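Table S2 (continued). Query chain:
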Amino acid sequence: MSKIAFLFPGQGSQKVGMGTDYFATNEKAAAIVNEADTALGFSISELMKEGPEDTLKQTAYAQPALVTMSTALLQLFKNEGIQPDYVAGHSLGEYSALVASEALPFAEAVRLVHKRGTLMEQAVPNGQGAMVAVLGLDQDTLQSICEEVTSAGNAVNVANLNCPGQVVLSGTATGIEQASALAKEKGARRALPLAVSGPFHSSLMKPASEQFESDLHSATITMPMVPVIANVTADEVHAPEVIRALLAEQLYSPVRFEESVNRMIELGVDTFIEIGPGNVLTGLVKKINRQVQAHAVQDQASFDNVLGILKGE
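Corresponding output:
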């Protein structure tokens, strides 16, 4: 029997103008955006619509904007009664997945990720941390490079295990420079610096994680109605106290996206639907396993297209 997983993108997928036409024509989506504005105490909707882009790119604003956009698009599936068998997200996207699973109320999610983004920005001063996507080198080699650079005094960690041949490293700016050079020496095809404001999913985020624990502790998190595949473990998570612990750990741990997708395929998923702006995760799924279907829903038109495919039209 066919199984569906909903995937939710992380930071970097945001863009000025996302959802503008959709929010103007869909009442339920508009209600989600209004709820976000009320929960945050400022107009994330205006920032999404008008920018400026430099502000929207800031971690503290990009994160609630993306959770808002994904949750608004999710209403299209709810209207049609389409329920996923599993949900997962990439980094920040895990919060959208928890909203979709009904483990985390939407208003609470946007407040949490605004705080999460603020703490992440504060953990390492801008310019002192960096991230790089390394193409064409295996995980074990990159892990040994990280250990070598870190032992020499510059913290570098494996941050995202995205798909075969694509691993992201995160750490101090100097450490990333050194790790990139070593990766190229050892045969990496490319080392692409990422346009991010900090060294996410590295040990440098531990102070942010410790500060964030109190927010997670006071948040209303319940048992998911749909199984959630957690970034940290690449497996199902159910108990609220475990969800809290893993969300704190997620800040400084690798996003095990490739393993998460493979785990869902083991569990019978053959159709992945990315819900949010962009189609990065759709591309990664196709690189992980070409036998499964992967589609991106970014607006009403792309939803209509995917709905036709799901109905076999």
